[in-house]
Inverse folding.
């Protein structure tokens, strides 16, 4: 929640600061043209920004770990501030069970007056972010560790620090490039198609009518048959687009058909929204699932039914499949899980500049991204 609030003030602040610092320091120090682009009228600045940055720029890069005092102090070079050091101090100012801590960050040698660095700080238990515009010591207060486990983690492993690659404005403009993907409008849908065409070289050809097969007779659908789904609109559409891009797949979502002992057809699906609005793994009667996809799914789903090869169908263990499906029903399934579908080799999973260190925290980061997207749209 803090991220949402922060984000609003962060944008206001950004523009105010840009303007003021321009006035005050404009003649003193050269500013980087990229830093002031957002001040220009949209028609002028957007094409420039679009050519400078891409979606990969919203991916933070790992700079290191700030560990507790007495251990080595972390030192690195940022996008804006060339000399930065950080260390962590543990304390119990909050008189709470696990105590809290202060992350000290000293930034200096800014390359211009108007630039700033945006950082994401993470432990496996939290993720927060901050940005720095002034050369001095900054602190990030953590009032209270969430658990004994988090306290132990920071004692031994410290707090991981990620730098948003393109600096503050690059990050913002990269977000602007990606944000339309999540908009539940025709414009958002076209953005998804445009993104897939541009980054994956996908082609989109309109199918002849009818666009929906008349599936009143489902006798030909068997246990283990696969539903490959591609959503191209709204929240899921946007995430699927990014997922297709990183994984190289053309389906962003999948579901599996299962028949019970009475022959009734079911669909096992992840990312199904329950009554409480949580995304969970669900088993739905075929009729309910199909009806939803035909009439209520606002992500413009493209669904292909892929029957299991007869040889494999002969080997498919329905009992085991049901046992597994029932054990997974109701389990949370959201962006956290989606991220893991990006990972299938030790390295070489991600378009540069993603790296393995980032993956450790990307799960939390995606919750943050989700906040950001919610906040901006
Ligand atoms: C912090 O102080 C409170 C109250 O004085 C105490 O109960 C708690 O154990 C302390 N926590 C740590 C980690 O020292
Ligand atoms: C910092 O030092 C303490 C003890 O001196 C050690 O237990 C801890 O693992 C060290 N942390 C890091 C990140 O090196
Ligand atoms: C689908 O097929 C059934 C039976 O073959 C038929 O009664 C029904 O009208 C068809 N529905 C549509 C929308 O074509
Ligand atoms: C199918 O799965 C069940 C439950 O896991 C198991 O008991 C059974 O032996 C399996 N059948 C075959 C043919 O492998």
């Amino acid at each position: 929640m803090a991220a949402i609030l922060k984000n609003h003030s962060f944008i206001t602040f950004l523009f105010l600061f840009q303007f003021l610092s321009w006035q005050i320091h404009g003649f003193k120090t050269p500013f980087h043209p990229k830093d002031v682009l957002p001040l220009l009228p949209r028609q002028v600045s957007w094409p420039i920004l679009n050519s400078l940055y891409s979606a990969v720029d919203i991916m933070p890069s790992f700079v290191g770990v700030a560990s507790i005092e007495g251990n080595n102090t972390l030192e690195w070079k940022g996008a804006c501030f060339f000399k930065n050091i950080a260390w962590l101090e543990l304390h119990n100012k909050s008189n709470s069970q696990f105590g809290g801590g202060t992350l000290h960050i000293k930034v200096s040698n800014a390359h211009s007056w108007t630039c700033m660095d945006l950082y994401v700080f993470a432990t496996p238990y939290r993720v927060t972010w901050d940005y720095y515009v002034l050369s001095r010591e900054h602190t990030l207060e953590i009032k209270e560790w969430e658990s004994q486990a988090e306290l132990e983690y920071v004692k031994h492993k410290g707090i991981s620090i990620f730098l948003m690659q393109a600096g503050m404005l690059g990050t913002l403009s990269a977000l602007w490039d990606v944000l339309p993907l999540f908009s539940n409008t025709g414009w958002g849908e076209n953005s998804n198609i445009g993104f897939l065409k541009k980054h994956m070289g996908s082609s989109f050809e309109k199918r002849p009518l009818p666009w929906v097969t008349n599936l009143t007779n489902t006798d030909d659908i068997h246990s283990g048959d696969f539903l490959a789904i591609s959503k191209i609109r709204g929240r899921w559409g946007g995430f699927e687009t990014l997922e297709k891009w990183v994984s190289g797949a053309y389906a962003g979502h999948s579901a599996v058909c299962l028949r019970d002992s009475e022959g009734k057809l079911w669909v096992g699906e992840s990312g199904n929204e329950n009554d409480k609005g949580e995304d969970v793994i669900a088993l739905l009667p075929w009729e309910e699932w199909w009806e939803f996809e035909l009439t209520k799914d606002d992500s413009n789903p493209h669904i292909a039914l892929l029957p299991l090869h007869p040889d494999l169908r002969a080997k498919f263990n329905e009992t085991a499949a049901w046992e597994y499906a029932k054990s997974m029903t109701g389990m949370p399934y959201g962006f956290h899980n989606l991220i893991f579908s990006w990972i299938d080799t030790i390295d070489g999973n991600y378009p540069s500049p993603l790296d393995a260190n980032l993956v450790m925290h990307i799960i939390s980061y995606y919750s943050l991204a989700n906040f950001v997207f919610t906040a901006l749209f």
Notes: The domain at 190-336 is CATH 3.90.1720 (endopeptidase fold (from Nostoc punctiforme)). The radius of gyration is 24 Å. The first helix runs from residue 2 to 25. The chain has three domains: 2-52, 57-171, 190-336.
